[in-house]
Amino acid sequence: MVDNTLSPHGGQLVERLATQSFSASFxxxxxxxxxxxxxxxxxxxxxxxxxxxxxGFMTKExxxxxxxxxxxxxxxxxxxxxxxxxxxxxxxxxxxxxxxxLLLTYQDQPLATLEVEQVFPYDLEHMARRVYxxxxxxxxxxxxxxxxxxxxxxxxxxxxxxxxxxxxxDRFWYPPAQLRNMLADKGWERVVAHQTRNVPHVGHEGFxxxxxxxxxxxxxxxxxxxxxKRIGDYIDEAIVLAQETLRNAGxxxxxxxxxxxxxxxMRYAGPxxxxxxxxxxxxxxxxxxxxxxxxxxxxxxxxPRASHQIxxxxxxxxxxxxxxGEWWHCPACEGxxxxxxxxxxxxxxxxxxxxxxxxxxxxxxxxxxxxxPEVFDVVxxxxxxxxxxxxxxxxxYLANRRPVITMLPPGG
Length: 412
Fold this sequence. Notes:
Blueprint: H1 24-28, E1 31-34, H2 37-48, E2 56-57, H3 60-69, E3 84-86, H4 88-94, E4 101-106, E5 109-115, E6 118-120, H5 124-132, H6 140-146, E7 151-159, E8 164-165, H7 176-185, E9 191-196, H8 202-215, E10 219-226, H9 236-248, E11 257-263, H10 271-283, E12 288-291, H11 306-309, E13 320-323, E14 327-330, E15 335-338, H12 353-361, H13 373-385, H14 395-400, E16 405-406
Parallel strand pairs: 1-4, 9-10, 9-12, 10-11, 12-13
Antiparallel strand pairs: 2-7, 3-7, 4-5, 5-7, 6-7, 8-16, 14-15
């Protein structure tokens, strides 16, 4: 099935919000189970339509179709299973059966209900191999998947308690319906999405500007991934505030750049995750999505251009991939250069993660060829305010950070 550009995936934006009809007495009588951070984020994404056309966690029929055909059972392209895993012991203790309504709680508060359509086991090794193309345990997605619990629950989800989004993320988080309205208010008819989990260096800036030119877009929507963090990742606060700084400091005009967040836990699934990212940004109102080298990859598990090639292998999904190569600093060109244009490849200076890390950790005032000075200053402010002295995730940061989401009692 093929959707028209600009329409949500599946043709209609899903909204499953029951916050106005919440009844403490009714929900107090339901079987309930607490969910972790990842599942809470996915409940929110389902309910607000980020994952349209999904209305809930996948049944076995959908999981099978995604793994074997890279499509949902209804035929719409989809590449990453969205599943709720529960232990067989918990299911037995709840005496949970198909047809039940299950209350999902988060931070000891009601979050969502799930209409239990199916309870089923699944071969986790098969799932991991089909999604990641490997069973190598050095791949973080493989470990994530094979550590799932031994039963899945499929069924529709309804949000019964609206999450509170904490500063500084609150001003960057828009459910798809609101984000689409914001883009329309800006007059952006062609919008190119920039997926990121990094503080922007000048190579990222060149990447965004190149994609803006290549797509003929009215604006660039930065969609910063905020989710599960690994030791050594950039801290979330620095990512979003540094992206915003590019516009505030004038490196992008006010009318061509905006920053938003996506609550998602990276799977590092390379080309499969690239397709997923495109679908999600389509639901957010984007018409184009930029993809650089090794998009959503990790280590050397995927060909650097695998996330470009996959869009030639699937039906059109209504969002245009803008594929680009590498950006570096060229001393001869005296600035950021693109591999398709620069003739000084033998003199290039890679804008590597190692170089960026050394610049930040040693508080070296960055040359203009790496970080814009305004970006560097904001990252150092975030280091002091949020990062326990580091721009990168540490155990101390994980233990003491303010969560992105805070759940209050319904109506609180």
